[in-house]
Amino acid sequence: MRRYFVEIAYDGSNYHGWQIQPNAITVQQMVNEAISRILQDKSINVVGCGRTDTGVHASQYFCHFETKKPVREDFAFRLNAVLPDDIVSRRHFEVDLNQHARFDASSRAYQYHVINVPNPFKRQYTYLIRHDLDFEGMNLAAQSLIGEKDFTSFSKVHTDTLNNNCHVTFAKWRNDKDTWVFEIKANRFLRNMVRAVVGTLLEVGSGKMNGQDFENVIHAKDRCAAGKSVPGNALFLTQIKYPFVHE
């Protein structure tokens, strides 16, 4: 048996997230079926580096699978021939059997895209806020996220995690022409965490909450203390790092 990592990118608009679900089309299902078809191996079960919610995109995503079948050098190219157009295979490589796409990731990074002016060409991948926002205040509040903390206030309830501690190393808004991009990087993320963080920061930017209020939300460890989750269509998983994978 051999284990392979596959790097992919996908537009999540047409999918109910990564994780296989009954009665819903997911990215994992599509990748499973494509690899099984190429290798003629019905035992294929790809394991992803993490979950993404319905409509969320990934410009970099890793998954792994095991097989006894030979994997050719042009496997990634052949995979693109059978994957739908909104999922693209970047590369593949063999790893040790104990190396895991989810558990061995040392860091993950996300971006969330917000616009203030309607743009028909960006409507599918941005969240439109029709009033001005205090991005300087949002950036000051975002610094409260940095460090090793319990982020229960920004997590879905009743998840299967042992704890809700994450080590955030970067959190900042930046302007990219007519789009404001929130970038956040951590060793791990909880389910719905980034969307809840952004939704709460938008409360700061709208003047409904100040920086101290935002910090108090973190300390509360209560999802009800945070703002609403923003839509998934403007969220992108942008980077996954492993100690054994080169760029």
Helix and strand string, N-terminal first?
A: EHEEHEEEHEEEHHE
* Global Rg: 19 Å
Count of spatially separate domains: 2
CATH-level-4 superfamily name of the largest domain: Pseudouridine synthase I, catalytic domain, C-terminal subdomain
Second rung of CATH, namely the architecture of the largest domain: 2-Layer Sandwich
**Assigned CATH class of the largest domain:** Alpha Beta
Which structural class do the helices and strands define?
A: alpha+beta
Unreliable parts = none
Strand residues, percent = 25-35%
Number of strands: 10
Q: Helix count?
A: 5
Instruction: Write the CATH fold name of the largest domain.
Output: Alpha-Beta Plaits
Distance between the termini: 26 Å
- Taking all residues together, what is the mean pLDDT? 95
Map the helices and strands:
Layout: E1 2-10, H1 27-39, E2 47-48, E3 57-67, H2 75-82, E4 87-95, E5 107-115, E6 127-128, H3 135-142, E7 147-150, E8 165-176, E9 179-186, H4 193-205, H5 211-220, E10 235-241
Parallel strand pairs: 3-10, 5-6
Antiparallel strand pairs: 1-3, 1-4, 2-3, 5-9, 5-10, 7-8, 8-9
Could you describe the 3D structure shown?
There is one protein chain. Strands 1, 2, 3, 4, 5, 6, 7, 8, 9 and 10 form a ten-stranded mixed beta sheet that branches. With 247 residues, the protein is of the alpha+beta class. It contains five helices and ten strands; from the N terminus they run E-H-E-E-H-E-E-E-H-E-E-E-H-H-E. The chain starts with a strand and ends in a 6-residue tail after the last strand. The protein folds into two domains: 102 residues, Alpha-Beta Plaits (2-Layer Sandwich), CATH 3.30.70.580; 134 residues, Pseudouridine synthase I, catalytic domain, C-terminal subdomain (Alpha-Beta Plaits, 2-Layer Sandwich), CATH 3.30.70. The chain is globular, with a radius of gyration of 19 Å.
